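Trying the structure run again after the queue cleared.
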Amino acid sequence: MVGHYRLRKSSSMTVYYDGYCPYCRATAMSIRGLDLSRRISVISFRHDTGYENYGIKIEDLEQEMVVLLNQGDQYRIYKGFDAVLAVLRGLPLLWPVFPLVWCLGRVGLGDMVYRWMADNRLIIPDAKHCQDGLCPSPPKKQ
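Done. Tokens:
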């Protein structure tokens, strides 16, 4: 599925990440820096609700990264480890590591490692979402 994907000149990609997660923010900054073609938008779902226009639910975003690939009048949604593969395919500077990461997915380690990282990420609400000095507690992980 993702293996046949290539970010065409007419395509664009939106990466929705958790803006409350320091590791996720660092990853988002890396994606921005590696996107030489400037066709990948990296957006915190905590600060922008544009994902709702594509039927993406906040519950899904709280569990895993979501990538929206726009190809003209069509779009595809990738989640979790598949989203990681989509991002790697969209960043030519990372193409040399794509085969290794793809192989991790084929042997079952990709989803397992991704799930562990997503389930154990640190969540720290930012000051914009705190009112009267009180920050809402992030949802409990199940």
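The helical segments are 22-34, 58-63, 80-90, 98-106, 109-119. Worth checking whether this holds up in the mutant runs.
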